[in-house]
Structure formats: structure tokens, C-alpha cells
Amino acid sequence: MKLQEYQSKSIFAKFGIPIPKGRVATTATEARQIAEELGGRVVVKSQVLVGGRGKAGGIRLAKSPKEAEELATQILGMVIKGLPVRKVLIDEAANIEQEIYLGITNDRAARRPVIMASAAGGVDIEEVARVSPEKIIKVHIDPLLGLRDFQSRDIAAGIDLPRDCWKEFARISLNLWRVYSETDATLAEINPLVITKDRHLVAVDGKMVIDDNSLFRHSDLAEMRDLDEEVVSETEARKYGLSFIKLDGQIGCMVNGAGLAMTTMDIVKLFGGEPANFLDIGGGANADKVSAAFRIILSDKNVKAILINIFGGITRCDEVAKGILVALEEVKPSIPMVVRLVGTNSEEGIRLLADAKMITATTLADAAKKSVLASQGTLEM
Amino acid sequence: MSILINKNTRLLIQGITGNEGMFHAEQMHAYGTNVVAGVTPGKGGEWVLNDKVPVFDSVRMAVQATEANTSVIFVPSRFAPDAIYEAADAGIPLIVCITEGIPVQDMMRVREYLDQKKVRLLGPNCPGLLTPGECKVGIIPGDIALAGNIGVVSRSGTLTYEVLYALKLVGMGATTCVGIGGDPINGTNFIDCLDMFEADPHTEKIVMIGEIGGSDEEKAAQFIASHLTKPVVSFIAGQTAPPGKRMGHAGAIIEGGSGTAADKIIALKKAGVQVAKHPEEIPMLLQ
């Protein structure tokens, strides 16, 4: 789960990392009021969950409250990479001497957290990594020990940080480690970490991603999820414990198991179709889940056919078939459906669905071919 | 012959009295697996599976009484890391964690601890293992696979079943099928399994089923090129997956342009691996 900049920075502040004074506004008038409180010179920053806000014109400096109001009006009307801007953060402008990058993330291959820093802060760090990787210092952290003082000094020295800033830098990096480990983040990033003209360090921008699997122990963070920035169908799917991702094709897919769901999408494409979604109904799919899945797939008007692919193992095909029948009663889809049931109790399942006017398929390839034809209207039920 | 589990496996089930644990305990027992004990804290002294299998309060007590040498974990994600630590602490050399949804930072600590103890973990978020005709540890349905000479290793669950079933339809079978799980940090990876299959005299060919995310398939490709003499057939799921989206499994995500199916397929083909366009092509490529 991605957090907005203002949310990330409020967490930083809680853990003792200095951030600029500022507040979120949803209207231009509010933006002006906040700018007045802050004393005039502010940065107006769009709050959307994508990178490249600055380049898109979504982060602007205002020299007066009046200008802040004007800029907020503009930015609140913007759409950045498909996301409409609904909030702006009004931050006191910092007097910048130097910009640093500091971040902690999971290094999957090393199976450890890694802290990364660069003297080339304020820009896209992936770009720095591509063009001049030598400018990034990386230090792995022992997951049982945590970040140690000596490591933060190594990093400070590695990026040629002025010595008078080392103490503050060490405190901020240790606090960022606490942020990362205590919130179960998969990314906690300060970019830029600014050295001000009066030689202090301030986290001017921040980004955090929280491990979805950890939300059971972070109810406060779970509440921060910005539903405005999520596809409605994905929010709805989460409610039913379905794993769903919307795509742009015409063939809706309903599958048990994530690997098989991806494979089903791939094979649809292989036979000339385009999948409309990824959908894993998980194990033990009951009627509730199946009908929710139908509703979510059918809410996409691009969908011209549905492919149901169930490999019964622990999940019993007759149970899924019963779920489908109940769901059909409720939802009454008018588009063709191809169903493939294999494995535990599949014969019983297929028998149950015999009267349901569905196209049946035996192999995965057969199911994919039939669903492509059905979506083109060349295969009747 | 087989890898990791066989007739001599003495299985302990952590979380045996839960819904999932009990259901699968029955399945494993019915398959012929030697289930010697269960653990549920607070239920020590009870007997399950028609009063054949004793339940203990702790893994240590279960190991002392039954000499269990493998543990399979069916406890909810918030308790699963502790269950793994407990099994490792009690000296179990092979731990299989079925549980899905363990936070990744927990897994980094678990893995660090297990490496220090030199204990092998399979999973988490995995279907377990099946040595057809001998032993089943986990949730892979027993009746979809025949015994044979093919080693199967996979990051997925139902997709693996699909492949085992496709093999069965043409009369082919597995020495052992290993589901290594779909999480970004796991205990056993492709290379570990490829190495064991290479060393197993009964395994003649190997099927490796990967998916998007991470770089384990690329590393496996390098290992195949430099260490394997047996032929490998592969399939990679997620060729149509969009970047930045987690496709169900926590580990199945294309990040910063890396972890794509295309890259993995190129690496595997370079290593001489035959890559199937879809899973039902695998039996043909093995012939």
C-alpha cells in the first residue's frame, strides 16, 4: 500500500525526522490560508500516488499567499498520469544548500533490507542508478541487528557529506530505520533530504510503501489507504478477499490460484484475445465470493466473454459449480461464458452446470480458444 | 527415489487442530504419509486422526516423544513466524510452511535465523511437497500425480497441479514435486531444488515453473547452464502482467523494469532450457 507524501512525512515526524511546516488543502482558499500562516513563501505540492509530479508541473513554488492560491487552483484542476489531483500539500519553502537521497528498501535477492544514499538527491533515483550507479552508496542491514551507528557514518562518508552534518544525518538514518521496521514498510524514502543554508537537515519529500501483509498489526496505517486513487473494482474485490487487477481487454477471467490466473491471462493472449483482468478467487471459493467475482467482472463494460478456469484440488469443483449457479441467479450475465472444471469432483460440477447455458471446455488451450471466439461473437452458447 | 521427503519422513503438523490443519492432516494420513504428531499449544494430551496421532503443547515435546523429522505449518500468518522459530529451535531439519500472508520483514528475520541454524525451510505461501506413492507433505492433491522420473519445482500452487495433471494424462509422473512458494523471501529456491534433482539418481528430467518478479529464474538459468546435465523444461507465468501490480502472490510483481517474464524466458532459453508457451505443452517438450 502506497502512502501519500503528506502521510509519509507525518510518520517521519512522529519518529523524530525533521520535516517542513505544512498542511494539506483541498481548496485554493484553504491553500491561501495555510500559506498566510506559514509566512508567505511556500511550495504547493500535488498529492497523487505517482512519480514525476514535479515534471508534470504538480509541484510549484509560490512567493506569496495570493500566488499559492492561484497555483493551488491550477494544480487542483490537474490530472497527473491519469490521476486527478484532489489534495495539495502546502509546505514552508526550505532554503536549500544541497539535496541528498536517503532510502531504505527490501533487497529481495540479498534477503535483507538495504539503506541507500546519494549526494545526487532530488531527482529520480532509478535514473541515477541507471546513468551513474557509482553515485549511490548501498549498505545491507542485518535484519536481526538493525541499522548500526557505524553504518550510518560509513554512508555519510561515502556520499561526502560535510562532517558538521554527520550527527544529524546519523540520527535521521536511525530514525528512518525505525520508521521502516516499525511500520513494516517495503520502502521508506526521503528524497530530497535537504541541507539548509543554516546547516540543518530536513526531509522535504517522502515516500512510503507499506507491506499489505502486515496491515493486520497496523490498523492506523490501514486507515490511510487512499481509496480515491484506486480502481473502484479493486477496492470492491478486496472486500470479498478476492485478488483482482483490472486490465484493458475483453475477456474476463475467473481462476483459482494466482499462478494459474496469470497463466490463464497469458494463454488468452496467446490465442489472440486480451484479458480484461487478473482474478484469483482463492481456495474454498463459496457462492458469495463467486457472485462478487461475477459482479466485479461484469461491471467492466469492455468485457465480451467470461472464462472460468478452476483446477479443483482442495477446492471442490461441485462447490464452485454451486457457487456459479447461485451467482448466475443473482447477476444474470448476458454475455457468453466458457467454463473449465478439472480435478476434484469435476464431473459432478460439470453435471450441475449442464443446464446453465455455458460453453464447456476440457483443456486450458481449448478454454482459451473458445473464450476468444465467444468474445468475438463467433461461438454461440 | 525422491528428494526431501520419502517413506522415512516422520511428519509433525503444527496447527493440527485448526480447520485447515485437520482437513489436510486427514488427507496426508490417507495418502500414507507417516504423521507422527501434532502440535497445538493448549491442546497437549488430545489424540486426533481416529486416536492414532497424539497432540502436544510444543514442538520440543513432540520431537522428544515421536522423533519427528519434518514439520508442516498450518497456523495463521500472525503466528506463523513463531511456529517456524519454534520448529527450528526444537531441531527439526525440514520445515514446510503452507501459511500465506506473512509480512516480508518477518521472513527476512526468519531466514537469517534459520541460516544460522542450518535448517531448511520450504515456503511460506507454498503448496508443500509430494513424492507420489510415498509421502505427501502439504496440500497438493495426491490423486493428480503419478510416480515417475520427472522432478517438478514450482513457485505456484494450482498451476503446479495443472502441470502434474497434464503429465498424468500422458502417463508421465514425478519423482518429487516441490512447491517453493510465491513470496519474495522464501526458504528454498529453484537452485536448491535443481541441485537436489541433479543428484537424485531416479530423476531423469526436470520441470521448472516460474513466474514474474525477482530474479530467481535468471539465477536458476545460470545454474542450469553451469551445473546441470539433466534436461530442463520450463514455463513462466505472467507474460501479460502489467508492471507495478502485485499479481496475487506477494512475490509476483514487476518492479523497476526487472522481473519480467520476457527477461526470464530469454535467460532460460540461453541456458538451453526448453520453454513452453503454455503449461499443456510441457509433456510434449519432455518427450
Instruction: Determine Rg of chain B (CA atoms, Å).
Output: 18 Å
Task: Please outline the major beta sheet of chain A.
Answer: 7 strands, antiparallel
Helix proportion range of chain B? 25-40%
CATH superfamily of the largest domain in chain A: ATP-grasp fold, B domain
Largest sheet of chain B: 7 strands, mixed
Structural class of chain B: alpha/beta
CATH architecture tag of the largest domain in chain A: 2-Layer Sandwich
CATH fold label of the largest domain in chain B:
Rossmann fold
How large a portion of the residues of chain A is in β-strands, by DSSP E?
25-35%
What do these coordinates show?
- The complex is a heterodimer of chains A (381) and B (287).
- Chain A is of the alpha+beta class.
- Chain A has helices spanning 5-14, 28-38, 65-76, 125-131, 149-158, 166-182, 219-222, 232-239, 258-270, 287-298, 317-331, 346-352, 364-375, and strands spanning 2-3, 22-25, 42-46, 59-62, 79-80, 83-84, 88-92, 96-107, 112-118, 136-140, 185-196, 201-203, 206-210, 243-246, 251-255, 277-280, 305-312, 337-343, 359-360.
- Chain A has 3 domains: 1-20 and 95-230, ATP-grasp fold, B domain (D-amino Acid Aminotransferase, Chain A, domain 1, 2-Layer Sandwich); 21-93, ATP-grasp fold, A domain (Dna Ligase, domain 1, 2-Layer Sandwich), CATH 3.30.1490.20; 232-375, Succinyl-CoA synthetase domains (Rossmann fold, 3-Layer(aba) Sandwich), CATH 3.40.50.261.
- Helices cover 36% and strands 26% of the residues of chain A.
- In chain A, strands 1, 8, 9, 10, 11, 12 and 13 form a 7-stranded antiparallel beta sheet that branches. A 4-stranded antiparallel beta sheet of chain A has the order 2-7-3-4, covered by helices on one side.
- In chain A, helix 2 (28-38) runs antiparallel to helix 3.
- The longest helix of chain A is centred in the middle third of the chain and has 17 residues, at 166-182.
- Chain B is of the alpha/beta class and 287 residues long.
- Chain B folds into 2 domains: 11-122, NAD(P)-binding Rossmann-like Domain (Rossmann fold); 140-286, Succinyl-CoA synthetase domains (Rossmann fold, 3-Layer(aba) Sandwich), CATH 3.40.50.261.
- A 7-stranded mixed beta sheet of chain B has the order 3-4-2-1-5-6-7, with helices on both faces. A 7-stranded mixed beta sheet of chain B has the order 9-8-11-10-12-13-14, with helices on both faces.
- In chain B, helix 6 (190-199) packs parallel to helix 7 (216-227).
- Chain B is globular and about 55 Å long.
- Classes of the chains: A alpha+beta (381), B alpha/beta (287).
- The interface between A and B is large, with 50 and 57 residues.
